[in-house]
Description:
The protein is α/β, with parallel strands linked by helices. The chain contains 19 helices and 18 strands. The radius of gyration is 24 Å and the shape is globular. The relative contact order is 0.12. Its main location: membrane.
Amino acid sequence: MKKQTIEFVFVIFIVILGYLVVLTDISFKWKVLCLSFYGVIILITIFSLMLEYRSAQNTLLWIYILLFLPVIGYLFYWYSGQLLLKGTLFKRKRANDREVLETISKRVRKTDFSKLNNHQQCFVRYLNKVSVTHSDPHTKTTILKDGTETFQEIKRRLREANEFIHMEYYIFRSDRLGKEIIEILMEKAKAGLEVRLMYDAVGSVSLSSSDVNRMKNAGIHVHPFNPIRSGLFNQKFNFRNHRKIMVIDGKTGFVGGLNIGVEYLGEDEDIGFWRDTHVLLKGEAVQTLHAVFLLDWMDVTGEMLLKDERYQRVIPAEADGLVHVVATGPETEDMSDHYYTMISCATKSIWIASPYFVPNQAIRTALRIAAQKGIQVRIMVPERNDGFLTQYASQSYFPEALRNGIEVYLYQKGFLHEKIIIVDGDLATIGTANMDMRSFRLNLEVNLFLTGTESIQDLTRHYEEDLQECCRLRPVEFYKRGMEERVKESFARLFSGVL
């Protein structure tokens, strides 16, 4: 019997046992028997968990959850703690993606890194060696600061499309903005353009079936990533496509933190102002970004489009630095290593902005050592997060940061959702990956790594402007927080391995 089937049977038993013990009047003897049976299931699960050779921290996390959250803890483990599947679920995708991206990289002339300074070379040489993509010197990047600027540019580029539009989003809503984008896509499809849209089945749960059918009837190819119905009994749905990619005619690309929804324009009354960053690309790196989309599309639909000559055109652009597109996911788990190395190469400053700051041990060590070396380390997070666990799990890492001289800033104007790291003012990354375990281990993500580009100056300027909307966290004031806050932090931190 497969492990997933056994665990599903355990779930049924646990629900029944919980019902019998809590909601019925069975005798004390039967309740003891039910609890004993429950204990056996938990012990078997813990033994199986220990055989998976996870990190000690992650193993202990799930043992605590299984022991101290009866029934609910096991259900949470069943839905969120299953990580063995990624080895088989993404095996084919991992091998195929690597082969295709390496082939694309081999077509490009070797880039000369000799003109880069030492810390730039430190990181770029590493990234080109370990990733299957390459640093491109013929790409122009333009920083789009907020939702208004981003969607104005996106809608303009969509209306100017002549051949094809390919889109991949974690969240695509059927709200005012979503319907406006859909109308543009339908108009282009009816005009004979090739339009493809892939959306994450969980993230885009609010995308209505009527809107999906409207798009299909207009000739748009629409497919969900990892539908819930196919993952209910084997935890496939725990692995999500968090990428935000748009490629138009192979000439223009978009990537960054913004999904399709009115909250990204700051129109959600409950959320308020939304601070985010997106990037417009023109040049050769668009082909790499497009390849990431086409590989995801093939994985979802089985449709092989990469050999089409229209998608192999390389269109250089005037540029002033290097742009490196890096896609990661459960099949690679490399984003944490890239962030770690980038931080380790710093000599003067490390500026981080992330909505969710739940770093692993490697990242925390790199930041601590950098601060101890006298490097300025700044971390910017939203003052109020969009979830209890993410709010207090992030907050639980502040004491360690403050003790090591790391500056922590709480963004107060609204919700900060951008994901950027700027090192020494001339090395940066921006994309979809948060500073948390879900982005490092479970989600499909895509980031741009920028070296010496003018757009880094824009990121730096925007970061300095955002600091004016922040309150710096002072150690003395923070340490005075009450016991209730500390308890919440300690509890939420237990779940940091799956946030």
